[in-house]
Design brief:
The chain contains 13 helices and 10 strands. The chain has helices spanning 2-31, 49-53, 78-85, 98-105, 157-168, 187-192, 209-214, 221-225, 237-242, 244-262, 267-278, 304-316, 333-341, and strands spanning 36-42, 67-73, 91-95, 111-120, 129-133, 148-151, 178-181, 198-201, 215-220, 228-236. It has a 5-stranded mixed beta sheet.
Length: 343
Amino acid sequence: MFRHELRWSRRAVAAAFACGVAALAAGPASAQQAPVKIRLSWIVPVSNWASMIQEKKDLAKHLGKSYTLEITRFAGTPPLITALANNELEIANLTYPTLPIAIQNAGMNDLMVIADEFQDGNAGYYSNEYMVLKNGPIKKVEDLKGKVLATNVAGSAVDVAMRAMMRKHGMEDKRDYTVVETPFPTMKAFLQEKKADLISAVPPFALNPELRAMAHTLFDTKDAMGVTQFSMWVARKGFIEKNRAAMLDFMEDSLRIVRWYLDPKNHKEVMEIAAKITKQPPERFDWVFTKKDNYRNPDMLPDLKALQRNVDLVQELGFIKQKIDVTKHADLSLVQEAAKRLK
């Protein structure tokens, strides 16, 4: 019996040794899992955080360790819906119209708002503009009847605000005016060449000295809608749950970088970074991340109450059929936990 037990003991020791060797071999690989790939979108340089975050990678302590970051530019927010649906993006900077459209019309019921990018209409801060020629015939909103209005993409945030203002004045698309699409960088040329009677203008393009010399603001987003949760970061619930640790590290790095940009003592360097990205003189960016710019929450916390009002308007304008409760599509735990890490 002793020999039988000894044989089993030897087998157990051998098995345990083999498992130990395997564990040692696998240990470093398990501890050093491949970083999670995070693909993040942007549309407008400087205004969208992704375009600026990549310029301060020195502050991203977890980059290349728990996650990698790929930055991709898009022409507008509606194409982001397709990219999210096709798993070509992990985090998209959706706006208040494209969020409900993605949830309801594209069937992505698992989309979650995870952070603020910027808001519009906050007291004392800049609001996106809708501009007409100074010497043109448009003096008031009612003068736009029968005219051509330029937007970046139908269904975008600037587009919805424009339509909301027109509706306030009793006018509807196709019946009372025509909408054409053109990217933000070409808006000035569209107005100058009279291809459009009104253009949508957002920073930094709205602050181009040449544009401001030839055009003036007819109304802004605040006039049309009040406060808007204009742009926000969203991700799919499954990706967040599967990669929570990496996402938390990413949000910590992002929040650290955002706070650096918002700190007035760094403003001169911020202007230089904005100039580098846009290939414009630094002095043109004295406005960036000040009260001359859209409001950005220093904790990257979105205004969900404003977002609910904005989404309700999107439904009223017919872009979605049913109302959406935005609180069911928000997970602020990542950014809240990231803020605690930085205290």
